[in-house]
Design goal:
The complex is a heterodimer of chains A (about 150) and B (about 500).
Chain A: H1 6-18, H2 23-34, H3 42-49, H4 53-62, E1 74-79, H5 82-85, H6 89-100, E2 113-118, E3 130-132, E4 135-137, H7 142-151
Parallel strand pairs in A: 1-2
Antiparallel strand pairs in A: 1-3, 3-4
Chain B: E1 3-6, H1 11-15, H2 18-32, E2 36-39, E3 53-57, E4 60-64, H3 72-77, E5 89-92, H4 97-100, H5 118-123, H6 128-134, H7 138-148, H8 160-169, E6 176-181, H9 190-197, H10 199-213, E7 217-222, H11 227-242, E8 258-263, H12 273-280, E9 304-308, H13 309-321, H14 323-327, E10 330-331, E11 334-335, E12 337-344, E13 350-355, H15 360-367, E14 377-382, E15 388-390, H16 401-406, E16 415-420, H17 425-439, H18 445-458, H19 465-478, H20 482-486, H21 488-497, H22 505-508
Parallel strand pairs in B: 1-2, 6-7, 6-9, 7-8, 12-16
Antiparallel strand pairs in B: 1-3, 3-4, 4-5, 10-11, 12-13, 14-15, 14-16
Helix pairs in contact in B: 6-10, 6-13, 7-8, 7-10, 9-10, 9-11, 10-13, 17-18, 17-21, 18-19, 19-21
The chains are: A alpha+beta (about 150), B alpha/beta (about 500).
Chain lengths: ~150, ~500
């Protein structure tokens, strides 16, 4: 992920439009590049896809993957779905919240970490599962999660 | 010649350290002067044994699992390169009872080779179905699907041939085949394993669907939680084009078909077919009213075939072997096989593909081996977050569409999650409402408001259960799609079969 960059943003939007892909494909490209969708992207998105500000914002608001707030430098996505519940995901999430002082969806004040909920990673035989900085991990418990947290660079 | 070693590279194997295992084996082999070649294959679906290491020996592929990097030195000491005995030995992989007792149609070749190895796919019978389909006209292709009795494997179990024929008979300048790979149901991973392990099977199935419906464009809608599946599919699409099994003038037949991958945005309801179409058009995934059905008025208003991954993956086998072969497996209303997916607190979780008709008990106890924790089973949930919670008293029910319907449950996408005695079923019912509240697209009031109210009610110490039931009735009867209308299924089955868990909190003390 790189820092917000207006020129790159415009290039990504133009590229998506040129391929005939829809608005959400551009949102995906922006999030993959910058981690979020900056306010300054709204105007080129509206222009590129001939949508109103409300239409662009509603598409961003609808999908869990898209956000207009910069994420933390690290991310933990803990699976909340039933198969992981059967393996102790509820207690593990409570532990993660207590340990980090964050609720799911929140980013720490120093911008180091964002805690997310996710609903099924398809690792259901080895719950609780999570994505830590995009890397899949399985059979988590409190000790393993603490070790992962301690291993994240500040 | 180098000894061939297979180490899966699907997401689960990676989460369990398969990359580190492969590196350690490479280093150890170099240090010992052994000549090996590591192949990163797809998963065999024996998830309980992952990472599952296989070695090609003179007698066949010997399996070891689950194997970690710290087992490597011991494996070399035990001469695993020649199938030597080790505490992690599972014997010949084809003789492992979990695998040997399956009837694999969809997962027949998954895990045999690297997912990008198109030659290996073809050498194991790949493209035989497509080759057969290229020689048939569209009506005859659909006739085979109809004879096969194939029903949609995504959850709704709608007869595939009816959808295919509706799209074929629609007159339009453009038609689409959309693969629903938004496998959001918890406890399901068959789509993921196929996409990551045998992606050419899905490509072959989609081309057949294109030939059967007269569509020349395919789109695979993959959920964003499966990034590796999307990458592997994209690589496979390129390889299939290079080999002329995809693209223009396929195998000089004069027929063309293109496929692209579209990654979703993290919304469960986009697995509902009309919400999925909205999402593909770049809009919020808000469900459309039906009719018109997508088969007539789908993507950008054009006739669109929408089938789940496993449904499309059944087509190559049906065309290669004939529909009657498929129909002969399973029961009259539930033809063919289903890759059941066992997970949660179960000893042997993984894919168990079998003809419809085996009992829940057989699957959970004989094959699954009961709970991993050793605690008694309290319930299973079958068919994802909108599926029923069932108690052990109902475990003799057969896994077939008609038998499950009779007890107020459904097969869904074939996922079965095992819960042990520690589970609070009221918390599970409340979660069903809360999940619906989180994922509801907001189009219809029963789902949008009902789910929030349901979660609030079940959070109280002494919920008004008559009101909960009333709410369930309104949601079941009044919601626009399965999200709202089926959320009452886990709630009601939990209430019916586990009434003790719903007693007022103070009275239960």
């Amino acid at each position: 992920m790189t820092r917000w960059n207006e020129e790159k943003c415009r290039a990504l939007i133009e590229e998506t439009c040129a391929k005939g892909q829809p608005l959400t494909a551009a949102l995906r490209a922006l999030v993959d590049a910058f981690g979020y969708i900056d306010d300054a992207a709204l105007a080129p998105l509206m222009q590129g896809f001939a949508r109103s500000r409300a239409e662009v914002r509603s598409a961003i608001a609808y999908y869990d993957d898209f956000s207009m707030r910069p994420p933390g430098r690290h991310s933990i996505r803990l699976c909340q779905a039933e198969a992981c519940q059967a393996a102790g995901a509820r207690a593990l999430t409570a532990h993660a919240c207590a340990k980090t002082g964050l609720q799911p969806g929140q980013t720490s004040a120093d911008g180091a970490l964002t805690l997310h909920n996710v609903y099924c990673l398809g690792l259901c035989t080895h719950g609780p599962a999570a994505l830590i900085d995009g890397k899949p991990v399985a059979e988590l418990d409190e000790d393993k999660l603490d070790a992962h947290l301690a291993g994240l660079e500040p | 010649m180098s000894t061939r070693i297979y180490i899966p590279a699907d997401t689960l194997a990676l989460a369990l350290g398969a990359d580190e295992l492969a590196r350690t084996i490479t280093d150890e082999a170099r240090a010992r002067g052994e000549d090996i070649k590591i192949i990163r294959n797809g998963s065999r679906g024996l998830c309980w044994a992952e990472p599952l290491l296989e070695v090609q020996t003179d007698t066949g592929r010997m399996a070891y699992g689950p194997v970690g990097a710290n087992d490597v030195a011991g494996l070399f000491d035990a001469d695993f390169l020649h199938g030597g005995a080790h505490e992690k030995s599972l014997g010949l992989v084809d003789d492992i009872p979990y695998l040997k007792t399956q009837t694999r149609q969809i997962f027949k070749t998954c895990g045999l080779y690297a997912p990008d190895d198109i030659d290996a796919y073809a050498a194991h019978g790949g493209f035989a179905g497509l080759r057969a389909a290229l020689a048939l006209d569209a009506q005859r292709i659909i006739d085979e699907i109809e004879v096969a009795g194939l029903r949609g494997r995504g959850g709704a179990a709608f007869p595939a041939s009816i959808k295919w024929r509706t799209v074929l008979s629609a007159k339009a300048p453009r038609k689409y085949v959309v693969c629903n790979a938004d496998e959001g149901d918890s406890g399901t991973f068959a789509d993921r394993l196929i996409m990551e392990g045998d992606p050419f099977l899905l490509i072959e199935g989609m081309v057949i669907a294109g030939l059967g419906t007269g569509a020349d464009t395919g789109i695979i809608y993959v959920r964003s939680e499966y990034p590796l599946a999307a990458d592997i599919l994209n690589a496979a699409i390129t390889a299939a084009k290079d080999a002329n099994w995809l693209g223009k003038n396929i195998q000089k037949s004069g027929k063309s078909f293109e496929i692209e991958v579209f990654v979703g945005g993290g919304s469960y309801v986009c697995g509902e077919e009309t919400a999925l179409l909205e999402s593909l058009e770049g809009k919020p995934g808000i469900v459309r009213a039906k009719p018109p059905v997508p088969a007539l008025h789908g993507l950008y208003g054009k006739p669109t075939l929408i089938n789940n991954v496993i449904t499309l993956c059944a087509a190559p086998g049906i065309l290669a072997q004939g529909g009657a072969h498929h129909k002969a497996l399973g029961s009259p209303d539930s033809a063919g096989t289903m890759p059941f997916q066992l997970s949660g607190d179960v000893k042997y979780g993984g894919i168990y593909e079998a003809p419809f008709g085996l009992s829940l008990r057989t699957l959970i106890e004989d094959i699954g081996g009961g709970t991993r924790s050793g605690k008694p089973i309290k319930a299973v949930q079958i068919g994802g977050p909108l599926g029923a919670y069932l108690p052990p008293a109902l475990f003799d029910t057969k896994l077939a569409y008609e038998a499950m319907t009779a007890i107020g449950a459904g097969v869904g996408h074939g996922g079965i999650i095992v819960f042990n005695e520690d589970t609070d079923m009221r918390a599970q019912a409340r979660y069903a409402f809360a999940f619906c509240a989180h994922e509801s697209c907001g189009k219809c009031t029963p789902c949008r408001i009902g789910a929030v109210r349901g979660a609030e009610l079940l959070a109280k110490d002494a919920p008004d259960m008559a009101l909960v039931e009333d709410l369930c009735a309104v949601m079941a009867d009044g919601s626009a799609c399965a999200m709202g209308s089926m959320t009452p299924i886990p709630v009601r089955t939990a209430m019916t079969h586990f009434a003790d868990d719903f007693a007022p909190k103070d009275a239960a003390q």
